[in-house]
Amino acid sequence: MQRAVLVGCGAMSRAWLEAAQTIDGLSVVGLADIDAERARARAAEFGLADAAIADSLDALLETTRPDIVFDVTVPSARHAIVAKALAAGCHVLSEKPMGTSLAEARDLIARADAAGRLFVVIQNRRYIEGVRRIARAVADGLIGDITSLHCDFFLAPHFGGFREEMAHVLLLDMAIHTFDAARLMAGAAPTAVYCREWNPTGSWYERDSSAAAIFEMERGVVFTYRGSWCADGLMTSWESQWRLIGTKGTLLWDGHDGVRIETAKPAGPGQFFSEVAAAELPPLAPSDRTGGHLGVLQDFIAATRGGPIPETVGRENIKSLAMVFGAIESAETGRRVDISI
């Protein structure tokens, strides 16, 4: 039986514990939060009567000797928590972002390598079926070679708490999901970005809650992003609205269940437009893992038991984080920024 502890018992911890309780051979033996009463309440909610309760990871490491640490803390605590867990010989599954800077992220990757332990990020939205099926369609060449991806993300959540006080809140806390999905769909890494941030009049966020960015990617692919967390009315889904353009057609996804695809034949002599025909998304392949939080958790636990390295392991996820920090640097400087991993 593998022993796991969870650190950070805010609202997001529910999804983690719901997923963890479905994994055979995994026992959550401790919970910690700076407010120990919140950890105690979460333990009671999930029937973890025997779990140790603490106000710090240090206390849990000493009393429970876990194999695994689930890090669900705020981003500013990430580096200290993950570094401490790795030093204690634990595998770590962490909330995103994996660091508050690329330097922090690189340091944690190096620490995980030195410790011979896994440091994996719960980039759960790439495990959504719609994202997976579109990535499969692109990989199968349904619309030819991808030339560009275009994405709209417009919502208006009132989180309260730390998010409404964060700098670069949209880019750092949410856009990484969208950037990660774009990287998966395109099958290409980022190379450069130009970005503009702003905070609309009437915003309930202290800092910039809206952004627009143009990413250059490998093979000449371009990815454009328009987003806001301060956009009431006609909101998109949390997965955004997408248009993917390839050399043989176009795919539209509304972020819910609506997908439209048209493939095109090259225009013949005298034709103004090419002939197009509707196409269907291909089925998922057995390797196309889904399940959101549960999918990531299943892959992580399997890897700790000798299975394949998860696709959201730190050394891969840093490519998505680099898109975030590249966009932030561009927004701060007003310049196009090269992205180096």
TrEMBL record:
It comes from Kaistia hirudinis. PANTHER family: BILIVERDIN REDUCTASE A. Pfam families: GFO_IDH_MocA, GFO_IDH_MocA_C3. InterPro entries: Gfo/Idh/MocA-like_OxRdtase_N (IPR000683), Gfo/Idh/MocA_Oxidoreductases (IPR051450), GFO_IDH_MocA-like_dom (IPR055170), NAD(P)-bd_dom_sf (IPR036291). GO terms for molecular function: nucleotide binding. Residues 3-121 form the Gfo/Idh/MocA-like oxidoreductase N-terminal domain. Residues 131-251 form the GFO/IDH/MocA-like oxidoreductase domain. SUPFAM superfamilies: Glyceraldehyde-3-phosphate dehydrogenase-like, C-terminal domain, NAD(P)-binding Rossmann-fold domains. The lineage of its organism: Bacteria, Pseudomonadati, Pseudomonadota, Alphaproteobacteria, Hyphomicrobiales. This is Putative dehydrogenase. Gene3D superfamilies: Dihydrodipicolinate Reductase, domain 2 (3.30.360.10), NAD(P)-binding Rossmann-like Domain (3.40.50.720).
